[in-house]
Amino acid sequence: MPIPFLQRQGKRLEKRFGEDDPTRLRLKYEPYYHTFNKQVGSRVWRDDREYIMLASNDYLGLGNHPLVIEAGKKALDEWGSGTTGARLANGSRSFHLELEEELADFLGKEACQISSAGYLSCMSAVASFATRGDMIFVDKNSHSSLWSGIQASGASYEKFSHNNADDLRHLLSTEKPEKTKIIIIEGVYSMEGHIAKLPEIVALAEEFDAFLLMDDAHGFGVLGQNGRGTVEHFEIENGVDAICGSFSKSLAGTGGFVAASRDAIEYLRSHSKQTIFSAAVSPVATACAKTVLGIMKEEPEHRYRLWENARKYKAILADLELDTWESETPAVPIVLGDKEKVYFFWKALMEKGIFTVISVAPAVPPGKDLIRTAISARHTGEDLERIADALAYAKSKCRL
Ligand SMILES: Cc1ncc(COP(=O)(O)O)c(C=O)c1O
């Protein structure tokens, strides 16, 4: 009969799993994978304790809007839970096309392709548009989905300093003119809350004949007069060739999109493994996203309230002299600069019933270890008061 202990020693992967430092530390300090058993508005409950959610990307707070609930239920009644297949094969439905048309129109593009996660959409945009032999110029603080796309594309790449158009110009000008060039940026950087220097970058893309792909997951619904995102914020009509993003922020659901010219989207449909070999976004997710998009257009008050809350929240942080990395948007980091400070600050906020998320290197640049927070239209005046008290407590507890 085998002795279990000896048997395990022989399994290299089991050994790797058991001895993995990030996993060991995560299980010891428990900063991630917290599970809530109830949610009402801006509040969540964990083990019967109530927290104010200050780390969600639910910018507009529309996930529980009565029209969204009704649309989700209706889609479930009509279509069932899923389409059990990829769009290319058996999974395409009329509701997918309706949402794609509406998103393309909203973003001022000819066509759009949706998928079951923003990660898949953003990855697939890079992985299918770029190919071996191309040169990608990517902001060094770009989201993991874009890096996965770069790796899958087989293209070469150069990183430019975060949001630094001068560095981008330098890199573009040293590249061979005949190379096919692709610039990859975010509209709003998710960790930093910075808005892309889009006018300068669009001008560079034109000057150097580069294709510009922008992940606007955090600009969509938040920036611009009508919530159309970073392009609308700068009133730039043309120049961004493709916009990808997620349903999991302002659209308060799950799924993702890529919007571009009709030729680009048809090309993506032929070449994107993430589209060809992955099941279509579900009926409920599509119906909910479409309904939120409709509400976003009809009810701008949610966006106004978001920005009003963001202004008040930033004033609280400024009074406490906390470093917010010059965030320009409702995604607001609190930079503390080292892992230990971040951990104890986060714990103090938890003690006071405020839920935030820790983000440390390598997820952020060294020395920028931070607490990631995001304000929502859902937050009430009372929430903001409790948040202010908790931040003051955490600051004094950590002797900052
Ligand atoms: C900038 C950015 N791009 C893409 C994604 C992926 O979106 P999703 O959560 O829908 O997979 C995220 C979400 O974290 C993001 O912040």
CATH homologous superfamily label of the largest domain:
Type I PLP-dependent aspartate aminotransferase-like (Major domain)
Give the beta-strand count: 14
Distance between the termini: 59 Å
Uncertain residue ranges: none
Radius of gyration over alpha carbons? 22 Å
Averaged pLDDT, please?
95
What is the CATH architecture annotation of the largest domain?
3-Layer(aba) Sandwich
CATH fold topology of the largest domain: Aspartate Aminotransferase, domain 2
Please report which band the strand proportion falls in: under 5%, 5-15%, 15-25%, 25-35%, 35-45% or over 45%: 15-25%
Relative helix content? 40-55%
Assign the structural class, choosing from mainly alpha, mainly beta, alpha/beta, alpha+beta, or little secondary structure: alpha/beta
- Overall 3D form: globular
Strand order of the largest sheet: 4-10-9-8-7-5-6
The first-level CATH class of the largest domain is given as: Alpha Beta
Question: Counting H and I runs of at least 4 residues, what is the number of helices?
Answer: 17
Which cofactors or ions or other ligands sit in this model? pyridoxal-5'-phosphate
Could you explain how this protein is built, in words?
This protein has a seven-stranded mixed beta sheet with strand order 4-10-9-8-7-5-6, with helices on both faces. The protein has two domains: 20-53 and 300-397, Alpha-Beta Complex (Aspartate Aminotransferase, domain 1); 66-298, Aspartate Aminotransferase, domain 2, CATH 3.40.640.10. It has helices spanning 4-9, 12-19, 21-29, 66-79, 87-91, 94-106, 118-129, 144-153, 165-173, 198-207, 230-233, 262-271, 273-276, 283-298, 301-319, 339-351, 381-397; strands at 38-40, 43-46, 49-53, 111-115, 135-139, 156-160, 181-186, 210-215, 242-246, 256-260, 331-335, 354-355, 357-359, 370-374. By secondary structure, it is of the alpha/beta class. Helix content is 45%, strand content 16%. The protein is built from 17 helices and 14 strands. The chain is globular and about 55 Å long. The relative contact order is 0.15. The longest helix has 19 residues, at 301-319. A hairpin with a 2-residue loop joins strand 1 and strand 2 (43-46). Helix 4 (66-79) runs antiparallel to helix 14 and helix 7 (118-129) packs parallel to helix 8 (144-153). The site of pyridoxal-5'-phosphate has 14 residues, from helix 7.
